[in-house]
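ERR on first pass: missing label on line 2. Operator R.T. fixed the label and resubmitted. Corrected input:
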Amino acid sequence: AQSVTQPDIHITVSEGASLELRCNYSYGATPYLFWYVQSPGQGLQLLLKYFSGDTLVQGIKGFEAEFKRSQSSFNLRKPSVHWSDAAEYFCAVGARFSGGYNKLIFGAGTRLAVHP
Amino acid sequence: GAVVSQHPSRVICKSGTSVKIECRSLDFQATTMFWYRQFPKKSLMLMATSNEGSKATYEQGVEKDKFLINHASLTLSTLTVTSAHPEDSSFYICSASGTDANTGELFFGEGSRLTVL
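pass 2 clean. output:
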């Protein structure tokens, strides 16, 4: 069965420090992978996505993620965190559904706190 | 990117009443929409998949008679929480497939917070 694991429930970093949020997935075929960010009480905003090709993908707000098939991972990184990056981050895998369309399966999320 | 709008963003109702939440794709046609439920500080749980003109497909454990989903047009899906109870209080988020539906990318609404007293 498809699944997504985000091992870190809560991470705290200092402003200006680098960040890496971990994501591991389980999926039988080549996955479509996504990172979303959610601010409190808000919907989800897509940060970046991987479908195929270059395994290092660039997203918005200075984020990037690297797909590593051998490790079944899609970790999110940012070289220098800003206070406004404090939010909940969700990794998701797009799974082919029997009806012919895809649905997203989300990880549990990682809550990022940023110290000034 | 594509825009998905939900209404209302917040709703408070009395126990036993029904509440309807709308999800609209504003600038694209969405043949498939998804409804998620999110408990506080938890991840998103897929409730059902809504296809225009057909019955919704519910995930295991989701009561279809409690959570009525209608997808009458290519731009509108509705979720009705019937006979709501306090345990139905939650954050409900809809999403819709973009033009490249095969890749699975979804566009999300802003969410609707339901509080049942």
